[in-house]
Design a protein that fits this description.
Number of strands: 28
Strand order of the largest sheet: 1-2-3-4
CATH class: Mainly Beta
Strand content: 35-45%
Number of domains: 1
CATH topology: Methylamine Dehydrogenase, Chain H
Distance between the termini: 38 Å
Helix content: under 10%
Number of helices: 2
Length: 368
């Protein structure tokens, strides 16, 4: 599965949740309350990284995760990595939680996606380019190295070990020495001038490889593209896709593809036919960040304002703050080896043990 839904151990994570609030980082009230973001113009969301008064948390022995956990990963050693919006990457090695960011040598503080290569190195898609971490130091790549843009949204390591990156200026392949542009058509965004669409017609939100080896690209206004190694095929609203603004691509255990959209719910693709699912079918929100198959007959849909929806094949059930979620704005989902499902929200982590939801919010939001 894609790196943002990889498995990880809960290990001693919960120990970090019992914390003191002394010396906690203080931020503006507007940052601590992320709830209005999905309703506000999207330009506001993408400009958050420009706020200069947001202090970066360094080493800490508490689970003090910044307010938006965009991606999560467990590496080969069992260490946990959480990519945050503007706080860098939170790395927990079993004894301490450390934030790696600009001050540590990373190229950016907005970590949109992460992937681990065979050597154990971690690759980060950031708002300042691509960063590679070998466990001791960073090597950064930017426009001067061949990337089309320093605004990087996605990273994939395919089955051959080739790195793929989605940027504001399209998709790029990296063979370890040089970047090569992978050309995709530019989306027509001329109709969208209200601020709710990020003005980047070449942006690639997500890159995913399915079980057959095909590479999928989720684009900002152009639908999805599938590359089979020889040809590239487009699936858009013309073919019946729910919406052309696609946030992520995933695959369930039955090998159906799922395309999560910003404005139209989700589309299921069985290789021949598209089936669209929206609010009228039971989804709590039309803004879907991702879809996750729990392997137990349940599909989970992370929404931008409607909590999480679980589909059992027949009906939907919605879980929100009233059920124990840290926030109704959820971007990332993954399962640990014990079977617990974790959700990265706009205000910390939420865990589901199969019976109940338990939230571990950012320290600044605990009320201490």
């Amino acid at each position: 599965m894609k790196n943002h839904i990889r498995q990880f151990y809960p290990i001693a994570l919960l120990v970090l949740l019992i914390t003191s609030c002394q010396g906690q980082d203080k931020t503006k009230d507007s940052l601590n309350s992320a709830e209005p973001l999905a309703l506000a113009p999207l330009q506001m969301l993408f400009n958050i990284a420009e706020l200069s008064d947001y202090k970066i948390v360094k080493a800490d022995t508490r689970l003090h995760i910044n307010w938006y956990i965009r991606s999560m990963l467990q590496d080969q050693k069992g260490d946990l990595w959480m990519g945050t919006y503007h706080g860098g990457a939170a790395h927990y090695d079993g004894s301490a939680l450390i934030y790696l960011n600009n001050e540590s040598g990373m190229s950016g503080n907005v970590i949109r996606e992460m992937a681990e290569d065979k050597s154990g190195g971690i690759w980060f898609a950031t708002d300042g380019g691509v960063s590679f971490y070998n466990g001791k130091s960073f090597k950064n790549y930017s426009k001067k190295d061949g990337l089309g843009s320093n605004n990087v949204w996605s990273v994939l390591i395919d089955k051959q070990g080739t790195l793929w990156f989605g940027t504001d200026e399209g998709a790029y392949r990296f063979d370890g020495k040089s970047f090569t542009s992978f050309t995709l058509p530019e989306a027509d965004l001329s109709k969208f001038k209200d601020g709710y669409v990020y003005p980047a017609p070449k942006l690639v939100n997500d890159i995913f490889q399915d079980k057959a080896g095909n590479i999928w690209f989720a684009t900002n206004g152009g639908g999805v593209y599938c590359y089979d190694g020889k040809t590239t095929t487009n699936i858009s609203e013309k073919e019946g896709l729910c919406n052309n603004f696609v946030q992520s691509v995933s695959q369930d255990n039955a090998e159906n593809m799922w395309f999560s959209s910003r404005f139209g719910g989700v589309s299921k693709y069985d290789g021949k036919n598209l089936t669209n699912i929206s609010e009228k079918d039971g989804l709590s929100n039309k803004f879907i960040w991702s879809v996750f198959d729990d392997g137990k007959g349940g599909l989970w849909f992370a929404t931008g304002g409607g909590g999480v929806c679980r589909y059992n094949g027949k009906t939907f059930e919605t879980y929100t703050k009233k059920d124990g979620f840290a926030s109704d704005y959820v971007q990332s989902i993954m399962m640990d080896k014990a079977g617990n499902i974790w959700f990265g929200t706009s205000q910390g982590l939420t865990r589901f043990d199969g019976v109940k939801f338990e939230s571990f919010p950012e320290a600044a939001n605990t009320g201490c």
